[in-house]
Amino acid sequence: MDFTLFKEYGFAGIVTGVMFFILFRMIVWVMAFVKDIIKQHNEERKEWLLTMAAIKTSIDLHNQQSIEARNLQAQAHEFQRKEHEKFLENQIKIISISDKTCDCLDEVKNGLGRINGYTPH
Fold first, then answer.
1. pTM surpassing 0.85?
2. pLDDT tens digit sequence for 78-90
């Protein structure tokens, strides 16, 4: 056994060298551990981005369907409003021809006006 290192650096030098070696190995281990964690995070991030893209697609589809449904509803209400206007016009003609005012027809006329958001004449 060669004791030249012990003579040259002493006991404290050898202990310090061993401690630095252990510290170096721990740093290498920690760096490898962090590298694995970074890989896992990158994989999770990719999956998360795919999931978020799928959610965005789903929300966009829902919004599109919602807009289409509102448009269809608006068309249906427009048709209903026109039918009510025709009914009111016919009612006014009937009243003007008969020169009588029927209370039940006036109530219907006022009710349809309130429903459609206008005041019939």
1. no
2. 888 888 778 777 7
